[in-house]
Amino acid sequence: MTQQAPVMRICISCKKTYDRKDLLKITKDHKQGIMFQKGIGRSAYICKSTKCYSDSKIKKKLQKALKTFLEPEFIEIFEKEITSYNDHPNKGI
Ligand SMILES: [Zn+2]
After folding, report:
1. Residue 45 domain-assigned?
2. 59-85 mean pLDDT
3. Does residue 3 sit within a domain?
4. Number of H-type helices and E-type strands within the chain
5. Whole-prediction pTM
6. Which among 42, 47, 46, 45 has a CA at the least distance from the CA of 67?
7. What are the helix (H) ranges across 1-93?
8. What is the chain's mean pLDDT, rounded?
9. In total, how many domains does the chain have?
10. Reported confidence tier of residue 84, pLDDT bands at 50, 70, 90
11. What pLDDT sits at residue 89?
12. CATH code, 13
């Protein structure tokens, strides 16, 4: 049996490399707009550390990474999303 190498991605906030499974993926989907953990398009990854997602500059960093404008409501949705994600770290495994 060969062990599959984990897919590594960089957190846009702390710039550390993590296993993709441990990151929240934010995608600017071509048709549906901003999506979490799904969608096709430009994506950014953020780790689950409170320091990263509660960073006051996170919206700016995301806008830059996704090359898009994020609505003010986005951060509210984003925080809910990452909090629920943190509650179920092993979801889907
Ligand atoms: Zn981070």
Report:
1. yes
2. 91
3. no
4. 3, 5
5. 0.83
6. 42
7. 50-53, 58-66, 73-87
8. 89
9. 1
10. confident
11. 55
12. 3.30.1230.10
